[in-house]
Write a structure and sequence with these properties.
Order of helices and strands: HHHHHEHEHHHH
Number of helices: 10
Distance between the termini: 149 Å
Strand content: under 5%
Structural class: mainly alpha
Largest sheet: 2 strands, antiparallel
Shape: rod-shaped
Number of domains: 1
Strand order of the largest sheet: 1-2
Length: about 325
C-alpha cells in the first residue's frame, strides 16, 4: 500500500489518461472489457475447481469403501460438483439399463473352500451376482464412460480460452495503443516544429498508459491460467484413471465371463433351484428281499423270468 499511495496521490495515471489519444483510449477500453471477462473466468473457475477437488475427495472415499460398483448409485447418494461422480453416474445408469433390458441369468459360481484366504471381497460379489450382461452390451457402457469423461474434461476447460487470450493479447493491445500514441506525439511535434521535452512528455505519458493497462490485464491472467491448467490436467488424469478402474470393476462383477463350455453346460443342465448349486441325485433305496440260500435280507437275489408258453398246434 505504501508503494501505491505516492503513485495514486501524484495523479500520474490520471494525467496520462487525460493526455492519451483517442486511439489509446479505445485500446484501454478494450483492455478493460478483456479484464472484466478475465476476472469473471478467474473467479468462477476457481470456485468450480475448488468444489471439484473437495467433492471428488468425498466421492472417492465413499466409492472405495464399497465392494459393489453400483452400490452408491442404488443408494441414491450424490456428490455434486465432482467430475468423477458424473462419470460414475453415467456408467451406472447405462449398466442398470442393460441389466434390466438385456440380462443374462447365470448360475452362482462355486464358493471358495473353507480356509481359503485368497478370495477377494470383490470376487464374492461377482460370484453371488447371477444377473449379468454380455460383452457386446458392455461395450455400450464403455462408450458411455468415454463420452462422460470427454464431457467432464471439456467442462473443466471451459473458459480457459479467455485467460489465454488475455495473457497473449493484453500486452499487444496495450502496445498498439502505446505505439499509436507515440506516433501521434511525434507527428504533432513535427507539425509544431517544437522538439522539446515539454512538448513530448504529455504525449509519451499518454501513450505509455496503454501498455501499463495491458500488463495489468495480462499478469493476473497469466498466474491464474498456469495454476488452473495444472489443476485441470491433474483432475483430467485422475478422471481417466478412475474411468479405467470403474470399467474394470463393472466388467468383473456384471459381465458374463463364462467359457463356451460352461455356457453349454448351464444351458443343458440348468439348476432347478436357480441358485447355481450342483444337482444332487436322489439316494437309491436297496431292494428288499431274501437272498438265495438263506442269505441276509437286502441282498439281491436272481430273478427268474418265466419262459413264454407256446401253444402246440392241433393236428387233425
Amino acid at each position: 500500500m505504501n508503494l501505491l499511495t505516492p503513485m495514486l496521490a501524484s495523479g500520474a495515471l490520471r494525467f496520462a489518461f487525460e493526455k492519451a489519444t483517442t486511439e489509446g483510449k479505445i485500446c484501454i477500453g478494450v483492455l478493460i472489457i478483456v479484464s472484466i471477462f478475465s476476472w469473471t473466468v478467474i473467479i468462477t473457475k476457481s470456485r468450480q475447481l475448488y468444489r471439484a477437488g473437495k467433492a471428488g475427495k468425498r466421492f472417492f472415499a465413499a466409492y472405495r469403501a464399497t465392494r459393489d460398483p453400483l452400490e452408491l448409485h442404488r443408494a441414491k447418494r450424490e456428490f455434486d460438483g465432482a467430475p468423477a461422480f458424473e462419470l460414475y453416474d453415467t456408467g451406472a445408469e447405462e449398466m442398470e439399463y442393460h441389466l434390466k433390458n438385456n440380462p443374462i441369468q447365470v448360475e452362482r459360481a462355486r464358493q471358495a473352500a473353507p480356509g481359503n484366504a485368497t478370495q477377494a471381497p470383490t470376487d464374492v460379489v461377482a460370484q453371488s451376482n447371477t444377473t449379468k450382461i454380455s460383452h457386446d452390451a458392455f461395450e455400450s457402457v464403455r462408450v458411455a464412460l468415454e463420452r462422460a469423461s470427454s464431457a467432464e474434461a471439456l467442462s473443466l476447460e471451459k473458459g480457459m480460452i479467455i485467460l489465454s487470450t488475455a495473457v497473449a493479447g493484453g500486452p499487444f493491445i496495450g502496445l498498439l495503443g502505446t505505439v499509436w500514441g507515440v506516433m501521434e506525439t511525434f507527428a504533432g511535434i513535427a507539425r509544431a516544429n517544437a522538439a522539446s521535452l515539454t512538448a513530448m512528455a504529455p504525449g509519451v505519458a499518454g501513450a505509455l498508459i496503454a501498455t501499463v493497462v495491458g500488463l495489468f490485464v495480462a499478469i493476473p491472467a497469466m498466474f491464474a491460467y498456469n495454476y488452473m491448467v495444472t489443476t485441470v490436467r491433474a483432475i483430467t488424469q485422475q478422471l481417466d484413471g478412475f474411468a479405467s478402474e470403474y470399467a474394470t470393476q463393472l466388467e468383473h462383477v456384471y459381465v458374463d465371463s463364462r467359457s463356451l463350455a460352461d455356457e453349454i453346460r448351464d444351458a443343458l443342465h440348468p439348476s432347478p433351484a436357480g441358485d447355481g448349486a450342483p444337482v444332487q441325485e436322489p439316494p437309491q433305496r436297496p431292494l428288499q428281499g431274501t437272498g438265495a440260500a438263506g442269505g441276509p435280507a437286502g441282498a439281491l437275489s436272481p430273478v427268474r423270468v418265466p419262459a413264454p408258453e407256446v401253444a402246440e398246434p392241433a393236428f387233425s
